[in-house]
Amino acid sequence: MASAIEIDRLAFAWQGDQLTLDIPQWTVEAGETVLLRGPSGSGKSTLLSLLAGINVAQQGTVQLLDQSLSDLSGRKRDKFRADHIGYIFQQFNLLPYLSALDNVLLATQFSPKRRQRVAASGHSAEHLAVEYLQRLGLTSTQLHQTAVHLSVGQQQRVAAARALLGAPELLIADEPTSALDSDRRDDFIKLLLELSEQNNTTVLFVTHDASLGQYFNRHVELSDINRASGGLAHA
Ligand SMILES: Nc1ncnc2c1ncn2[C@@H]1O[C@H](COP(=O)(O)OP(=O)(O)OP(=O)(O)O)[C@@H](O)[C@H]1O
Ligand SMILES: [Mg+2]
């Protein structure tokens, strides 16, 4: 595989003609771990949503794992995301009335590919989900609590476990440690790095936490790749 992420002449505006993103070219190689930084409101989450095919750029192309996202219908993009991308949303996106464990298992329920990868590990999805949640510090009681009854930091750890289950090729994490204390943050980084090394996962990780910098191959400032700044298009 040539590259995990390949952006070419991408332009995206939420509304009107003010560009949030104007990225001539950007590549992330398979297996790279990239830390993405930028001020609040600069377009980091917007970029991640385009990479995951949740939103579609008005111009240009986004290729993920050699697949051009704009060539896929909305439904196929959803399937592609379920199969290939572990996404930790800034707002977690858990189903509030499912338990922590069932939220994690959603990752494999929507993706035969992720079920196959779990099966190849020789463990059940439930076994791995419990292992990840326990390594992230959830107790056996908390595993069975509905997400709505978990603390924000616990919900964030459930979202992290869900993104990791089934060894997706690409992990996209939008400030995934923002609600964690330093011990929980270290547990998460350890699990993330261990699994991504094992599976040659490409990692794109947004964080403001400078202490995490050491863990990544490459640091990127959004302003270094994005010609639109503060929502204003360049002349
Ligand atoms: N759903 C949306 N509809 C309209 N505008 C949006 C939407 N989401 C984001 N924006 C706008 O796009 C710009 C970039 O927002 P984005 O959420 O991508 O920034 P960010 O870099 O992730 O910020 P933060 O560090 O605060 O999470 C902002 O000006 C924001 O108002
Ligand atoms: Mg954001």
UniProtKB/TrEMBL annotation:
Residues 5-235 form the ABC transporter domain. InterPro entries: AAA+_ATPase (IPR003593), ABC_transporter-like_ATP-bd (IPR003439), MacB-like_ATP-bd (IPR017911), P-loop_NTPase (IPR027417). PROSITE patterns: ABC_TRANSPORTER_2 (PS50893). Pfam families: ABC_tran (PF00005). GO terms for molecular function: ATP binding; ATP hydrolysis activity. It comes from the Bacteria. Keywords: ATP-binding, Nucleotide-binding, Transport. PANTHER family: ALPHA-D-RIBOSE 1-METHYLPHOSPHONATE 5-TRIPHOSPHATE SYNTHASE SUBUNIT PHNL, LIPOPROTEIN-RELEASING SYSTEM ATP-BINDING PROTEIN LOLD. Belongs to the ABC transporter superfamily. This is Methionine ABC transporter ATP-binding protein. It comes from Idiomarina fontislapidosi.
